[in-house]
Design brief:
The protein has 329 residues and is an alpha/beta fold. Helices cover 39% and strands 18% of the residues. It binds guanosine-5'-monophosphate and manganese (II) ion (MN). Manganese (II) ion (MN) binds at residues 28, 83, 109, 127-128, 158.
Length: 329
């Protein structure tokens, strides 16, 4: 028999596992966490998913999402954190002392990952879900419809429906495997992309009016607390706005700055290939991918926004040149 992988060895030794998704969760962290928890249950483990923040409402269709709680690790033998590049992303569920008392597996696809686990499965893939799919065979898990639905949701959300530059042949192969297992690609796409609230429309309308385009091609807008209140919007309504801005032809970088009630600014960044916004996000204590990154920065909206817009304009000036369009080469 071949040597069991390190993950397999840790899973074999554990009777119970807590799988942790990151704060302000998205489809990849929730889909990955649920998919992995279902896989571990198939192996006879007691597994639960924990997340410091509530799941976005468009993920309500995912099997097991209603059982996710904000309970920190308790007596579980093993902690697995998915899609979180650093421990700050674990939020209130992180406790250095608790984490030091048992093995911690860090499964992530962010280039900025800080390798905080006792085992770090960090590989650059489209999504953490794609990475977890790779581990299933090793774990001795048979892919079923439940697991496939969770993992395909992670792939679809992190690649925005297989449209972003992190989509590779391996992502498409993973989608083939998951759809062959029964996951419904059109239904997942519809659930995660085609349902928007009227409060989102009002918020985006106000945010569009406030957009500014810098001469370097930095398109940005800001969302003060008053703007959210006037629109009757919640945090979820602010998500995705930066993606829309990135579709504007003049935008080489797009950015949104959202004021939080805790006196911080939640920053979302997108860029064309050739400009690495994860470097800018890292400088401000965040992380992400070259073309999609973010950070949560203490300070006033005006101050944080002006410092980051400056850094983005600088990054845009250092662009290595236009990205090749489709059909080039
Ligand atoms: P989004 O703009 O969609 O919230 O996030 C884009 C990417 O940046 C995601 O991969 C996300 O994990 C990462 N990201 C967003 N905010 C933060 C942050 O505060 N810290 C870190 N480390 N990564 C972030
Ligand atoms: Mn992800």
């Amino acid at each position: 028999m071949p040597n069991p992988s390190e993950l397999r060895a840790l899973a074999d030794e554990a009777a119970s596992v807590v799988v942790i998704a990151h704060i302000a969760p998205d489809g990849d962290t929730i889909g990955s966490a649920l998919g992995l928890a279902w896989a571990l249950r198939q192996l006879g483990k007691r597994a639960r998913v924990a997340c410091a923040d509530p799941s976005p409402r468009e993920l309500a269709f995912l099997p097991g999402v209603g059982d996710i709680s904000a309970e920190p690790p308790e007596d579980e033998d093993l902690i697995i954190v998915v899609d979180a590049s650093d421990v700050e992303r674990i939020g209130s569920l992180y406790d250095a002392q608790v984490f030091a008392t048992r093995p911690v597996v860090n499964i992530d696809h962010h280039i900025t990952n800080q390798r905080y686990g006792t085992l770090n499965l960090v590989t650059q893939r489209s999504s953490t879900a794609e990475l977890i799919l790779d581990q299933l065979t090793d774990l001795g898990v048979t892919l079923d419809l439940t697991i496939a639905t969770c993992l395909l949701t992670g792939l679809v959300t992190d690649t925005r429906g297989f449209t972003t530059s992190n989509t590779t042949p391996a992502s498409l192969e993973a989608a083939v495997v998951l759809t062959r297992a029964g996951a419904l690609l059109p239904a997942i796409n519809d659930a995660v992309f085609n349902h928007r609230s009227i409060t989102l429309l009002r918020l985006w309308g106000a945010a569009f009016v406030a957009t500014r385009l810098e001469e370097e091609g930095v398109l940005w807008t800001e969302l003060p607390l008053t703007m959210l209140a006037q629109a009757g919007a919640d945090l979820a309504d602010a998500k995705g706005l930066v993606n829309f801005l990135s579709s504007i032809d003049e935008a080489r970088i797009s950015a949104t700055f959202r004021e939080t009630p805790e006196g911080k600014v939640d920053v979302s960044l997108r860029s064309v290939p050739g400009i690495d916004v994860s470097q800018v996000a890292m400088r401000f204590g965040g992380g992400g991918h070259p073309q999609a990154a973010g950070c949560l920065v203490p300070g006033t909206l005006g101050d944080v926004r002006s410092r980051i817009v400056q850094a983005l304009r600088e990054a845009a000036r250092q662009d290595r040149g236009p990205a090749p369009g489709p059909g080039v080469g």
